[in-house]
Amino acid sequence: MKKLSDRVLHFTNGAGFLGIIEGDHLRATHFEYTNDSSELRSYLDAISRLSLNSDVEADSDNLIEEKDGKIIVTLSQTNWQILQLGIVRNPDQFLNAYLTSFCKIQNMYQYYNGLLSQWRGYSNDGGYALEFFKDEIINKLQGLSETESFSFTTDVKYVDNTKIERELQKSFYKTASISQRQSILDKNLFDMGPFNLNDKRSVIGLAGIQVALQVMKSCLQYKNLHFSEENEWRVGSFHMKPLDEGSSFVNFYNRGGTLTPYLRILAGKTCKLLRRVVVGPHPQQGRRIRSAEMLLAKHGCKAKVSGSSIPFTRLTQ
Predict the structure, then answer these.
(1) Rounded to an integer, what is the distance from CA 187 to the centroid of its chain?
(2) Can you give the residue ranges of every domain in the chain?
């Protein structure tokens, strides 16, 4: 039996729910097009203000070793610093990140009914909450995916805005310190992507991507204290190619007239991972529950469907 802390809810509207089931995937939206884009951009700006250590010791060659199926890359001091500065000073070139958000379940009331703040966000549409197990998502996101992206997960920490810059600096130095220049790579990654284990530059490039992932993870793990009720858990996906270079794996959907780029994550696995659906407050909630059950049955999804008992209140202009 899974504990409440192991369960997360992904809130979406009717069109989103239909797309998830019929497409058998979740959307990871480019971070510049999310509701949190201005906040994330301000965090990147905070990192760019870091004063990195400019003292470079006597340089040495990059060292690449193989041990127990792992590739251990120790970058030279100069190359490590160049990599750091490049990521910090030109984040758009490196941090081509996509985001999927979930809410961690905190108590039994939320388990059965979802979050009022999230239902309000979907206004008269009512919304749907899809339950997943965190560990099952994590297990399916290992390594480089078929969409040429690396994924990672992180809990969100809610911090007062006046303290966020200091927290970001601490996080960045912890995960990408100049004094810690070693990356440990899984050998299997070289069978999945555009990397060549026998090409020194390719190996070093993959080590650099790990640093870029840590920079974006530092940004994705913080949020303004006022949103703490969401208790958010995020999946971040780092795409190999910048947005303006194009990729057959980047898709688009219409969001209020804006063509919004996204990646498909957990493609072909989402319906099997889906555990439960909570139908949000709505005058026709009963009909929505029945049609949701029909949709799931059509696609062989065994998730249970229930309705939130939070009262429906129509929002007025």
Answers:
(1) 24
(2) 25-99+117-126+136-263
